[in-house]
Amino acid sequence: MGVILGYVATLGVYFFIYNIFAFGLNIQFGYTGILDFTVITFMAIGGYMAGVASLGPEQPGSDIYYVLGLSLPWPVALVIGAAAAGAAGYVLGLIALRRLRSDYLAIVTLAAGSIVYGVIGNANGLFDGFEGLVGVPQPLNGVLKLSPNSYTLFFLGLAGVIMAICWFVAERIYRSPLGRAMRAIREDLDVAEAYGKRTFRVRMTAMVIGCVFVGIGGVLTIWFVTALAPAGWGTSETFVVWAALIVGGRGNNLGAVVGSFLVAVLFNEATRFLPAIPGHPSLISEIRNMCIGGLVILTLWFRPQGAVAERKARFFEIPLRPGALDEAAKSVPAMATSGS
Amino acid sequence: MAADDEILSVHDLRRSFGGVRALTGATFGVGRGTVTALIGPNGAGKTTLVNVVAGAMKPQAGSVVFDGRDITGRPSHDVALNGLIRTFQISREYPAMTVLENLMVSPQGQTGEHLWTVLFRPSRYRAEERAHLERALEVLADFGLYEKRNDYARSLSGGQKRLLELARAVMARPKLLVLDEPMAGINPALITRLAEHILALREREGTTFLMVEHNLDVVEDMCDNVIVMAVGRTLATGTMAELRENPEVVSAYLTGGLVDVRAQG
Amino acid sequence: MSLFLLTLGFGIVTSAVLALAAVGLSLQFGVTNYVNFAYGAFLAFGMFFTYTAQSALHMPIVLAGVFGTLATGVVALVVDTLILEPFVRRGTSGFFLLIVTFGLSLILLNLVQAIWGVGFDQYNVAAGSPITLGPFSFTAAQIGVVAVAVLTMVAVHLLLTRTTLGRAMRAMSDNAPLARATGIDTRSVTRWTWFISGCLAGLGGITLALNTVEFQAFTGNTFLFVIFAAVILGGIGQIYGAMIGAVIIGLVVNFAGMVISSAYDLDAAFAVLVLVLLLRPQGIIPTLGKA
Predict the structure, then answer these.
(1) What is residue B264's predicted lDDT score, i.e. its pLDDT?
(2) Domain-located, residue C223
(3) Which range (A168-182, A244-258, C2-16, C51-65) has the least confidence?
């Protein structure tokens, strides 16, 4: 019983974390049309920075090397992780969001991702290279003195609260005039620009908020796993987030949640617990990745809007001034005859 | 016309692409409150001129003064925020947004476009949003698109998209509206209707119009003033009647694009 | 031999590999007007088809290379015909085509890994004694790589200037609607383009494998953005630009490796990519209407 509960709670935590990733990508791609092909890099930056902010100073002779080691309390580490991811997104945006065609943007994000991957992997003194950080303290774990299963449940609650806040913020942006400007830019950047939208600034805003979200997800990941190494954030992980958003429904945060459940939880995480096929240790992950790629292509073919399509914007209804329609008809006589 | 009556003064604009010299010296003024036409044979540089004036391209030489400000080479959004809105030759609605939303994007400098306000003070933009919404609905009623307000813009017919383009521009409350071939490829009934809208807007809101137009009958009916371009520069300005007497203009059309003009007229 | 000349020699070989791959990517990019993010997987197919032809079918390396090249061309053709073409015909916007090719790269790379395994492989090529050419000294394999690249560049040049297909490809690259209007069979030209692009990717993969000696499924994909850097530096869809871009990037990567550290040589390619995008996003040779 306890084992099953722990397993479900673990999947639940991953579900919430992927929700946050998918919200972040949704703000970038679903709202604004930014092709960020290196989502997961910002998860890593957020996670690593929170890790080194909450870990104690590096121990000589331990063979684990990293920068900082500030022993900060967890809420501060969360803020540092989120801010670091946002700052990294800002720097990438400075290069990638100038008025370039969308394929350039995709190429630059992809290239930047592999550069960051290589640098973090090769520079041992940064976040312990390809070995990665281990033993990152978990929020309140020392204080609460819970059994592992109970702590997982506690963490599920914490992740749930953070996820709910992210969802709320993402929705608030979507419904605002800012979100409307983002969608206008997604639809036609030149036209939005010609109508006085500061497209660079709006796209940068979306880029940075998206990265902050993904960074928060990264902080939760490193807390939950207590470790993070480059093997855990390759390009295929970026694609899992993309798959979640495309399958669930871009432009719709509920879609992001549905997609995270279908792709990231059912497909990706649950299959991690399948036993390896003897003689082919990586075959399961290879098949899984192929299936996720295939799922995205099939979705784009059969249901391009995703499982839950983007909602039509609704405005509170304001009754027209009485007679406004008649007046309009009178002021433009040709209208009555050549209407729709 | 005295210079201080001009809302837009363009002086000696030049722009080339690779070896092609698209603008070789365009100079003209647009009088405040007028409907001014920009005509010329195909390849005369009219669309390039619109792009340069509206900031979509930078000129290599020359100046653009709009409403007393030098806007030469300013980015499009800056030009737009000064009150100069341009439309595009082909309708470019925001396809996956509703008709009403297409209009709601237009108002300039919306309080609700600031992240801080959105996240922490959303109540601050509610009243403004309501005012924009009221106006948007009235504009839609005026343009006969009220019933379509909750439809996706991509589902409109070609003619309705033209109306939407103009309606959306009106929502931005421009001082000068630059229309790039608003009448091209639409039926005569819709031409009449668009013309009436344009004249009504000038009357009601005092909007100035500069329109690139091929249809000389429309130009004759609507426009106070006409600017003629050929091979990248402005040839002449005046009323249609004056231009008919101008041998340079007549010869430019005879050698350049008379067939084209007749075909469209 | 000085370190400078040694590095220059390696730089020439890297440029040759890069030129093969970059021309193939640029050709397809120009004709179809969208980027193929699965190109790194095509490199992997070239590497491993050749590997199998040599190790299992006992072909000599040259014959195995020809087989690998053509087989990769066929893979590219199949991928285009079965998956990409239907999306293009339906009018799917550029955004989603990029996501489709991104998904394809995931599928194809994992397929290669599932078939040929995760470990490193290498071709059975006799190392031999280094051959001295003027101030440089190369292995036989390196000379082969450079020779193949030079011959291929000449062949591509002849294809584009002397054949009907090549002229049609250039016409589509300049203006696809116009090309269609003038009666060019754009569908068959597109398919030929994918086949040729795949062949060049295959060749790029094989030469990359010869150059790095050891290779595995993701070797080509790591190299992908270096190829992108060469293509963007040269100007999207500009074949000769891609060749020049390849030479510049190839030299920069090797000299950066010499000056800084070989662990960071790819970062130099990224730095060039960023500089190009910031200073001259249209590339050395701009394409009208495409920048």
Answers:
(1) 37
(2) no
(3) C2-16
- Domain annotation for chain B: domains and CATH numbers: 3-93+172-264 (3.40.50.300), 95-155 (no CATH)
Phi, psi torsion values for B44, nearest 5 degrees: -75, -15
> pLDDT value at position B259?
38
SS3 C121: strand
Could you write out the DSSP letters of every residue in C187-203?
Answer: HHHHHHHHHHHHHHHHH
Is A276 at the interface with chain C, CB within 8 A? no
Q: Are C33 and A106 in contact (CB under 8 A)?
A: no
Q: Is A71 an interface residue toward C (CB < 8 Å)? A: no
β-pair partners for B70: B65
Q: Which residue of C has its CA nearest to A30?
A: C95
CA distance A306 to chain C (A): 12
Predicted local confidence at residue A324, as pLDDT = 66
Mutate to test the interface with B, among A189, A315, A337, A338 (most CBs of B within 10 A): A315
Tens-place pLDDT, residues C156-186? 999 999 999 999 998 888 888 888 888 888 8
Whole domain around residue C38: which residue ranges?
3-216
The reply to whether C284 falls in a domain is no
Q: Where are the domains of chain A?
A: 2-233
* Residue C101 falls inside a structural domain: yes
| Nearest residue in A to B81, CA atom | A196
- ipTM of the complex as predicted: 0.88
CB contacts under 8 A, A 30-59 vs C, are 33, 35, 37
Range C21-50 burial, b when 16+ CB lie within 10 A, else e:
bbbbbbbbbbbbbbbbbbbbbbbbbbbbbb
* Amino acid A87: pLDDT: 97
- Average pLDDT over chain C, rounded to an integer: 87
> Could you tell me the maximum CA-CA distance found in chain A, to the nearest angstrom?
88
State whether residue C266 sits within 8 Å of chain A by CB.
yes
Tally the C-alpha atoms within 13 A of residue C93's C-alpha that lie toward its C-beta: 11
- Set of chain A residues whose Cβ sits within 8 Å of the Cβ of C94: 102-103
Residue C235: inside a domain: no
* Inter-chain residue contact A320 with B137, CB threshold 8 Å: yes
Total count of domains within chain C: 1
Interface touch A100/C281, C-beta < 8 Å: yes
pLDDT bin (cut points 50, 70, 90) of residue B133 is very high
Q: Running DSSP on this structure, what letter comes out for residue A66?
A: B
Answer yes or no: is pLDDT of B1 > 70: no
Residue A340 confidence (pLDDT) above 70: no
Q: Using the beta-carbon criterion (under 8 Å), do B141 and A316 form an inter-chain contact? A: no
Position B257 pLDDT exceeds 60: no
